[in-house]
Amino acid sequence: MDSGGNNELARWPSVDRESIEKIKQWLSTQEHLPQLQDHEIALFLHANYGNEEATQRTIENYYTLRTSHRECFTDRDVFNDALQTALRIMMFTTLPGETKEGYKMVYTRLLITDASEFNHPQILKLMTMCLDLWVKLEGNANGHIMLTDMQGMHLGHMTKLNMGASKKHMFYVQEALPIRLKQIHFVNVVPFMNRIMFLMRPFLRKDVQEMINMHVDIDTLRKVVPVESLPNEYGGTAGTFQELHESFKDKLYANSNWFRSMESRYLVDEEKRIPKPRRYMFGLFG
Predict the structure, then answer these.
(1) Which pLDDT tens digit goes with each residue over 220-230?
(2) C-alpha–C-alpha distance, residues 115 and 126, integer Å
(3) 56-102: per-residue pLDDT in tens?
């Protein structure tokens, strides 16, 4: 999240400076939370459309989860064997340009269909790293869209889904990641998609469920995503799958020191957390 000083505030022209000061004042009363810089607060305010109460919740969720879910937020060396394997199996990339609404897009797909090396928690860890980098590089947008291409996915992958890791990942995306999530698109939907949704639906807020769009093929997606933003293989001009994959890998590698530095920074100190009041009779507290 930290990308370099108060000059970063120029990226958030719509954020009210008075709101930043109010969040800073609130943070000063929360000893368990890290004290954030102005541009970091602005990112959370922007994601929450300036709503200060929602911003406080997102900040609390973001840093608490990064502290408690250490298996996902440590050992984030993109050059280690586990993450290199994940990068070989899964493609993650940003798509160039924006939709007509000004939404920015990320796209994922399998690169290898053999499920023998499919380590779901490591895949989700890589996905979280990629989302963090997406926010760092392109957080200022009217909205954000996630596209998942299911081409090549089969029942062998489904047997390896880790529901515990999925639940934490979904909480992070919905309740902690400072983005304006607008749409979720599944492309080349597999016949067993209803089974996947049966497993995932308990982890999804109702409003997020309503963002989900299913595409049996690529034709209907072209109504949402500009042609110039689509991969060449799908009739677009954004570049081939390989070119897009290599481009985002280069961004991951270029930010490898940032990932490592963030592992031990901005963590929650649970010993300093003020306990919530105990619930008394008639709901006077709590």
Answers:
(1) 888 889 999 99
(2) 17
(3) 999 999 999 999 998 999 999 999 999 999 999 999 999 999 999 99
Instruction: Classify 184 as helix, strand or coil.
Output: strand
| Alpha helices (runs of H) in the chain, residue ranges in sequence order | 17-28, 38-47, 52-68, 70-73, 81-89, 120-138, 155-158, 163-171, 193-200, 206-209, 241-254, 256-262
Give how far the C-alpha of residue 42 lies from the chain's centroid of Cα atoms, to the nearest Å: 18
Q: How many residues does the chain have?
A: 286
Beta-bridged to residue 110, according to DSSP, are: 90
Helix (H, G, I), strand (E, B) or coil at 103: strand
CA 21/CA 51 separation, integer angstroms: 13
* Amino acid type, 94: T
Q: Which DSSP symbol is given to 49?
A: T
Closest Cα partner for 227 from 239, 216, 213? 239
Please state, in angstroms and rounded to a whole number, the distance separating the CA atoms of residues 151 and 202. Answer: 24
Q: For residues 173 and 135, is the Cβ–Cβ distance under 8 A? A: no
